[in-house]
Amino acid sequence: MIEIADVSLVDWSRAQFALTAMYHWIFVPLTLGITFIIAFMETLYVKTGKEEWKKITKFWMTLFGINFAIGVATGIILEFEFGTNWSNYSWFVGDIFGAPLAIEGILAFFMESTFIAIMFFGWNKVSKKTHLLATWLTAIGANLSALWILVANGWMQKPVGMIFNPETARNEMDNFWEVLFSQTAVDKWLHATSSGFVLASVFVIGISAWYLLKNREIMLAKKSILVAAVFGLISSVYLVMTGDNSTRTIANDQNMKFAALEGLYNGSEGAGLVAIGVFTESETDPQNENLKDFSMKLEIPNFLSYMAFLDWNAFVPGINDLINGNEKYGYMPATEKIERGKVAIQKLGEFKNAKKAGNDQLANALKTELTSAGFQEDYFKYFGYGYFDDPQDLVPNVPLTFYSFHVMVLLGFFFILLFVLSLLYIVKGTFDKKRWFMRLAIIAIPLAYIAGQAGWIVAEVGRQPWVVQDLMPTMAAVTRISAGSVQTTFWLFAVLFTVLLIAELKIMFRQIKIGPKH
């Protein structure tokens, strides 16, 4: 049976994984999007035969190469941390989680790496069409690589396609296609990759605006803005659509996270959407330090009900409904889930003891009970709740989830406006006359990274305390090593990643100042 680790070890392990993941996501989204922008630019070169498009393609390709190399380094460390810091998790679900990661390494990563070599070193060595094919396959490979990681993450948010094996105390994959095409996994992939497309478009427009401000590389800047604005506008509208769908999936499958991202404590029919809100420091519930009320809020009536269930008057459960239960709308109290989870854990313990004592008759009877459909539905689906005693521990950090979600959404709409104006100004030929807008476009680059980080905070903080929704809490997933060891590696990684980031920025800035080769 899995033992509970001390709080310090859990917190440091979480901090280290969050640190690695956040640094990794600084490098990844640009790779996802800029490869497609480069592919579009090279397509224009092959179609028109104009050398200026080749020069533009090669310039953005150089910036992509700088970013790609450092992104790979942080990604490899992230995967190793599953084994070093989260071994109980890896044991519990490794048969499922390992498959997407293996496919990512074997198929997508090698595909991406192979065609990158042709993309960078194949100019004048292979035909134009072969080189263009390699560029497109690099873009597709980069996004396929993201697919498998996000399938694995989606499964953690909504575990499907698996059966529990009492003999090994592990979850094993039962249906690969159900894991691959779960709504949560599809939503996460489409939303995360489209956010990368938006970030890359903002990046290209911002760098191009800097050139126009400096009155340099005018042709490159204007043509790049045109391509990036069109790609960014399409991607940002698609981002809103995928985000809307993803939010609806969360409302159905992770209703505690949904309540947290809206700061909704008490559910209601026709619930309003808090478009802007500020939490007070006062506690509305002295039993729960996470629960705070709004000091001010701007609410859109009934919109939350529609966003969640496409029904203006649907009931949306709040945190109190999920903790205390709501019989009218069929929400079970958290205390009952905890009791059912403890029964599941106890039965599994009895089975293991019977096996150990050689009592095959009892072991077989318990195995039959554990794997029965009724026990799985009534008890095993609450397995993770058995590790808790206080229902309030099931509430994530509400203010952090709420603010992150709203920052992400507001910036998403800001980027749509940025792309619309960029397209309008570049088509009218007035982009380089709008100095305020060019400065705004440069400022938008870090904002795009902030939006991406905020999105992942919503996804990961909002689902706490689970590492696998309802089945495994974070405190049960961590490796039993000393907290001091994790602290040491945390600070080593913090220094290493910061040095890598500084190095990337220095190289990137220098390359931008140099500009394309003439």
From TrEMBL:
TM segments? 22-46, 58-78, 98-121, 133-156, 189-213, 225-241, 403-427, 439-459, 490-509
User: Coiled-coil annotation: which residues?
Assistant: none
Named from the GO MF annotations, one term is:
heme binding
GO cellular component, as recorded: cytochrome complex; plasma membrane
UniProt keyword annotations, A-Z? Cell inner membrane, Cell membrane, Electron transport, Heme, Iron, Membrane, Metal-binding, Transmembrane, Transmembrane helix, Transport
Q: Where in the cell is it found?
A: Cell inner membrane
Coarse class of the primary localization is membrane
Q: How does it sit in the membrane?
A: Multi-pass membrane protein
Example of a GO biological process term:
aerobic electron transport chain
Tell me which family the UniProt entry assigns to this protein: Belongs to the cytochrome ubiquinol oxidase subunit 1 family.
Q: Which PANTHER family match?
A: CYTOCHROME BD-I UBIQUINOL OXIDASE SUBUNIT 1, CYTOCHROME D UBIQUINOL OXIDASE
Kindly provide the name given to this protein in its UniProt entry: Cytochrome ubiquinol oxidase subunit I
This chain's source organism reads: Maribellus comscasis
